[in-house]
UniProtKB/TrEMBL annotation:
Belongs to the NAD(P)-dependent epimerase/dehydratase family. InterPro entries: Epimerase_deHydtase (IPR001509), NAD(P)-bd_dom_sf (IPR036291), UDP_G4E (IPR005886). This is UDP-glucose 4-epimerase. It is an enzyme of class 5 (isomerase). GO terms for biological process: galactose catabolic process via UDP-galactose, Leloir pathway. The gene is galE. Pathway: Carbohydrate metabolism; galactose metabolism. NCBIfam families: galE (TIGR01179). Homodimer. SUPFAM superfamilies: NAD(P)-binding Rossmann-fold domains. It catalyses: UDP-alpha-D-glucose = UDP-alpha-D-galactose. Residues 45-270 form the NAD-dependent epimerase/dehydratase domain.
């Protein structure tokens, strides 16, 4: 019996899935073996993919990799038919805010249409439990901070809108087809896993922490601060950062919750505190004991001034709390990983 499946897609988040597999191993959910549809298999010769595969093979005696795409409904049905899957953890999505503004069609097709393919195949084959990777981008520009799950959802970019559409799709499927789901609204995933030697590595890289670290290590000439005139205490964007290991634990708690009879729910996953871009810069400078070159650039389309989430609901219902509670520990784990150039 396989209680875990990561969503099948060649276009997805690279970090959280591997973290969750580690946590699933520790939670001992699997009875005989755990089968994973790895969601970032673009090129079998890619060093990143080899690192992920080796990490999984070290963690599990039996791990199955199936390269594919959620648009391939025949493959989805084949997988659900072959394996006795009782739950899905769905990470796969495009997740670049700027790109979603310039090419929304790409996001509607992959994020929304392909998620519907997954849900339809699940139901067709008797799988009715899903953990969904949503995002704080569904909130848009919040009226109050920290943001609670009951706050209005008014996304200001197509990426956030696609995730909101999927959340609504889950509600409708739950009502009509007895699907059970937990939607986890991520704030900013960051840091690196020491156990798996896995960190942030996107192409193109758009996330602040890996870009700042790359500049600190001399791999980039300067770091771009997109806007210093926001309505925040220092003018730069403020975000809530959560370590990938904490994200991994949250997914396991959500899976336990569903499999133990919990009803469909949504939860914020953040750190209950925000840090500005300039604060991240200064904290990284302190870690390396050196100044980091940066320049001020125009604002990016679709960027809210501040996003800080409340974890109170997840703490109360799931028993979730962050172990990495300060930005220094998150940065330190990321810096250590980037210094070793894993891939």
């Amino acid at each position: 019996m396989s209680p875990f499946e990561s969503a099948l897609d060649s276009k997805s988040h690279p970090c959280p899935p591997i973290e969750n597999l580690e946590q699933i191993q520790r939670a001992k959910f699997h009875n005989k073996e755990t089968k994973n549809i790895e969601s970032n298999l673009q090129d079998s010769n890619n060093k990143k993919i080899k690192t992920l595969i080796n990490a999984l093979n070290n963690a599990y005696k039996k791990t199955s990799f199936i390269k594919g795409d959620l648009s391939d409904t025949a493959l989805l049905d084949k997988i659900f038919t072959q394996y006795n899957i009782i739950a899905v953890i769905h990470f796969a999505a495009f997740a670049y805010v700027g790109e979603s503004v310039s090419n929304p069609a790409k996001y509607y097709k992959n994020n929304i249409a392909n998620t519907q393919n997954l849900l339809d195949s699940m139901l067709k084959n008797g799988c009715k439990n899903i953990i969904f990777s949503s995002t704080c981008a569904t909130y848009g520009v919040p009226k109050r901070l920290p943001i609670t799950e009951s706050a209005a959802q008014k996304p200001i970019n197509p990426y956030g809108y696609t995730k909101l559409v999927i959340e609504n799709m889950l509600k409708d499927y739950a009502h009509a087809y007895d699907l059970k789901y937990v939607a986890l609204r991520y704030f900013n995933a960051a840091g690196a896993s020491a156990l798996f030697n896995i960190g942030e590595s996107h192409n193109p890289e758009t996330h602040a922490i890996p870009l700042i670290i790359a500049t600190a290590l001399g791999k980039r000439a300067e770091f771009s601060v997109f806007g210093d005139d926001y309505d925040t205490f220092d003018g730069s964007c403020v975000r809530d950062y959560i370590h990938v290991d904490d994200l991994g634990r949250a997914h396991i708690l959500a899976l336990q919750y569903l499999l133990n009879g919990g009803t469909s729910e949504v939860f914020n996953l953040g750190n209950n505190q925000g840090f500005s871009v300039f604060q991240i810069l200064k904290a990284c400078e302190k870690l390396i004991n050196s100044k980091i070159n940066y320049r001020i650039c125009p604002r990016r389309d679709g960027d809210p001034a501040a996003l800080i989430g409340s974890n109170k609901k997840a703490a109360k219902i799931l028993g979730f709390n962050c172990i990495f509670e300060n930005i220094e520990s998150i940065l330190a784990s990321a810096l250590k990983w980037h210094k070793n150039a894993r891939y």
